[in-house]
Design brief:
5-stranded antiparallel β-sheet, single chain, elongated
Length: 146
């Protein structure tokens, strides 16, 4: 119990309130960057926007998906540019050194065909602790047991 007599849930959790805030900020930054791209940027340039808060192996996977021939050529021919904004819906799991959040990424996409809005829900896992977290996994929230 806290001094006010109210339960302090953080005494039962493997992270502090400031650690949770740092993890959430990392996930939101990731979502903003993940949902933002331009048809004119290379896969490595897109990946560079994620490197500060994403594991190297995940950046490599994302770059490979971004450069996939069918996806890349469709993006280029439509001259797609997307601006992403991320919002955390909830925490779905946690452990001593990891937290998994449900993240809604809303994109405003402009292309030669006009403008549109798209919203996708992801399950994003960060690992670390304290003020130091990095994204190690991202999946569509509809995949698996989410």
């Amino acid at each position: 119990m806290s001094q006010s007599g109210q339960p302090d849930i953080y005494q039962w959790l493997p992270f502090t309130q400031s650690g949770l805030a740092a993890a959430a900020a990392t996930v939101t930054r990731f979502g903003d960057a993940y949902g933002t791209y331009s048809y004119s940027e290379s896969a490595s340039a897109y990946g560079a926007s994620l490197k500060a808060f994403t594991s190297a192996s995940l950046v490599n996977q994302i770059e490979a998906a971004y450069a996939a021939p069918g996806v890349a050529s469709a993006r280029a021919s439509a001259k797609q540019v997307a601006a992403g904004t991320a919002t955390i819906d909830s925490i779905s799991a946690f452990g001593p050194t990891s937290l998994t959040f449900y993240l809604q990424v809303t994109q405003r996409i402009t292309a030669t065909s006009g403008a549109s809005r798209q919203s996708t829900r992801y399950s994003v896992t960060v690992t670390g602790g304290g003020a130091s977290w990095q994204v190690t996994s991202v999946d569509l929230a509809t995949v698996g047991n989410s």
